[in-house]
Amino acid sequence: MASTSADTLKTLPVGRLGIIPLKSCQAMGQKVNDYIVKWRKERDHEEKDSLKFEGYKRDSYLIDSKTPRFGSGEAKGILSESVRGDDLYIMVDVCNYSMTYKVCGHTNHMSPDDHFQDLKRIIAAVGGKARRVNVIMPFLYESRQHKRTGRESLDCALALQELTDMGVDNILTFDAHDPRVQNAIPLHGFETVQPAYQFIKGLFKAEPDIAIDSDHLMIISPDAGGTGRAIYLANVLGVDMGMFYKRRDYSTIIDGRNPIVAHEFLGADVRGKNMIIIDDMISSGDSMLEVAALLKKRGAAKIFMCATFGLFTNGLERFDKAYEEGAFDRLLTTNLVYQPEELLAKPYYVNCDMSKYIALIIDTLNHDGSISTLLNPVERINKLVQKHNQAQGK
Q: Where are the domains of the chain?
């Protein structure tokens, strides 16, 4: 991928770039920073000596932030340097459960609520001094509570409104559970990005012999809600798609949800074909593994499970067992949320790194350039498939 588009290079930055990765997102923030530092050192611009480009090329764009806690568990946000006039990009991973803090001597693991509060503390520490505040929240906080059915809270919409009320101009997220939640903030920037390109790239690297045609490959959506991303990927690759319909027992609630009674398949014959099952997240993994098992029963060949967010809330044991039994061949997720070392060490796991993509988006937005080509990677996927086919001699 080229560092930035030609149009981006012709425009001036909105402001001096500042990246604030919260502690939950520091590893990703460092990678993003390294890419931008490299690109800007190599980039030439006709107005590079202008005062408007002061601070454009630096050794680091990272701004140190802290959210220390008192013994009671309360906290505060602190910035270590001035951000007046800066174009800020605050990065947070609300799913990083590995972080802990003490409350009256007891150890607490940080929940999404804790991370969201820390995000607001850093925005409050900015104090309205920045030229623009952008939040990069890969897993959208409370995105699974995006619609109201009965007497219940509408948490995702409230969270978005809370951020914009605090002065946030743009919110960037990945594969939002339901993008329509942006209707809660219609006058502010909201982008939901798909990692389709990174999935295909990761799959080609892990499975160099995979054939991309309708006779050998099929895209599967594990439920009706995810058909959009499956249709998109199937159309880009030029292959067929199928979907499963979850039949639920709406008279019962277990762990806050209605249990699935059965998965009904809608689609063509899968016998002898490789399957790409694609979804926005793997939570417990029950649905994904059951879909994979059902496809195997129908005679599917290799099965590749792709999910933007690998949460693995019930651990990895069931995935280990399913892999040993031959239920699936590869598991692909991104590094947009916390990944335990145990996951990275699995023989079936493929890590899809999103840091370069995020760096591209930040670099482009800082120049107030259009990111429409970055959000729609059809051209890049087509080039990737063409290169893959050439390597196979097709």
A: 6-194+355-369, 196-353
